Amino acid sequence: MSKNWYINFCEYDDMLHENNPYLAKGKMEVYLEKYPNDYFIMVHYAQTLIMLKEFKKAEELNSKLKDAMAIIKEQCGDEKASRIKNIIVQNEAKLLVIKKRYSKVLELIKHTNCLSGDNKRYLFYYCNIMLGNTKYDNELYHQYRFDQCFEYSEERLLEHVQKHTKEYDKDDKSSYLFANGFNLNEVLTEVKKYIDQDNYIFRGYTDDVYYFRYDNCGTCCGAELNYIKVVCLHGTSNIVNIEPTIEADDSMPYVNLNYLKGVPRRMSQIEKFYKKYNKEV
To answer: Is the pLDDT assigned to residue 99 strictly greater than 70?
Structure first.
């Protein structure tokens, strides 16, 4: 086993469980300066680069890791090499989706066991829909997400988002729920002004995720939440989910919506950028 494998359990846990991909990227870069042959962190670093839209750099690193699988297996052993290979394939699928090479994604998932069954099914139906293939017209094909790919409906979005309201689920204390009186329609109208800008994070296989500050917008497990997550299908302004979230913090790109509550507005970093360069928001 490589001497660079699991150098520091605390550092590993800190890096791999960091919700903020910007902080995770910085921690991994510092770590890889010390341990440049730690392939496990390297493949997670490529994964983080994809989230932050550094697609070219991520693709180069992922390709390098793919070519080095024989060395990785020799140094890390079969179990760890298998875990690394799984993430390489996940990264490859995401990069192909981003390039809209849907036929290539279907070919990839047909010949790999490196993706979970749920992810393979999701990518199978998503890519067929994006290719305009309707021959797999069944119950799975008409799940909420896929219907929104076929024909986007804001009415369906509002129905879907109701599950995040306390009126819908009064007893579920573990769900991300909007606060009582939260004006969803007003916030939805406002967030649309900021969609289609470059301040999103790419999560999962198809999601562009935007974050908005709105103090006391909701709760989870009794904790007050101050951020809203807005999910769009990649490369579109079609919102498929909006909910309060614990994922964001002040060091991430976000738009401050507290002005909707009459709270004095403090501009976020992304808003300062747009103002400095006279860009429209």
So the answer is: yes
